[in-house]
Amino acid sequence: MMQTKALEDVTVLDFSHLLQGPFATQLLADMGANVLKVERPGAGDLFRSITFRNKWLGETRESPSFLAWNRNKRSLAIDLKAPEARDILYRIAADVDVVVQNFRPGVMERMGFGYEDFRKINPRIIYCSGSGYGTSGPYLSRPGQDMLIQGLTGLAAATGRGDGPPVPVGSGFADQVGAMNMVYGILTALYWRERSGKGQNVEVNLMSGLLAHQGQEMLMAMNFNEDFQRPNSGIGHPGMDAPFGVYPTRDGYVTVAMSPFRTLVGVLGDDSLLEYDDPERLFTERDAIWNRIAALTMEWNRQDLIEAMLAVDIWCGEVKTHLEAAADPQVRHLGAITHYDHPTAGRVKVVGPAVKLSETPAAIDRPAPLVGEHTAEILAEYGFDDAAIADLRARGVTG
């Protein structure tokens, strides 16, 4: 029978926690992969205990941070330090396609769950590790957290106003880039395995990923031996000239991207600005130009200015909050916002899968799991009988 989901014959043994690894395995799960999320009995993934602004969902206080990255998975609660854990997980690993983990380098190997351990059991296994800085080097013992990586790779230093401090991106950008790279590596390895029959080790680190996603900025800095300097105005990129940037209006902000300066001046109605219409001045005097333009945009309502700029093909857009973005007509048209029903948190609004496939579409079939919700179900699938499952739970090996 034809597969209804592209990855429905792929099983992932998922040891990951927090954001990078769980987002990667959620992306695979959305495409149909059978993701078995290994968690600590009782406590589960550390993200279950972390939230923003001390806000929780439902009477059982479910973490929005956990619910965001763990749909379409089943939870297998098992104490990795218990002697029986190896036997259980080795039995499962004999039949899985992919292992994902983002513990600090060396942790999984010390517990007997490294690539070499699983490869002995299953030579076709694809083992994907995510870390902050790779598996060796002077930063090996450093914590590999998202904002720290943004600072170390130049992203924060290139963001914000020149007369203020560096500004990290307002999202877990390094982790999410890392998740995409994990999926990229896993799918590449799966494709190669179809031809070679062999598994392999896939390593992803946040530092390399964020450097790669700043490819043009890094190339400019290294080849001209000159760092970008952040402007004091709202120019949206340290390497761009005016009018590129964010501008205030009476009731909000608008963005203007690469657009003919003369055309924008025509919309704003102040021909004295044309003295700056020179490529060199548009860069070297961009702060002064921004201030002149901002004084004019402040005389407009946001929507009126957007409509006037779009009418002459200026690249522009509204600056929207998250709630405004969720209500955006194009976002609604795309069906980008959806929901799932969680057994304790109730109806949870979420961002749906971003990739559309015509023959094997992604779908949300399961909410994020409760800790150990599927332990008995998963163990039964791998040959453990009811008595063995009950015994493991009674002794605290599983939850």
UniProtKB/TrEMBL annotation:
This is CaiB/BaiF CoA transferase family protein. Coiled coil: none annotated. One of its GO terms (molecular function) is transferase activity. It comes from the Bacteria. Keywords: Transferase. Pfam families: CoA_transf_3 (PF02515). SUPFAM superfamilies: CoA-transferase family III (CaiB/BaiF). The lineage of its organism: Bacteria, Pseudomonadati, Pseudomonadota, Alphaproteobacteria, Rhodobacterales.
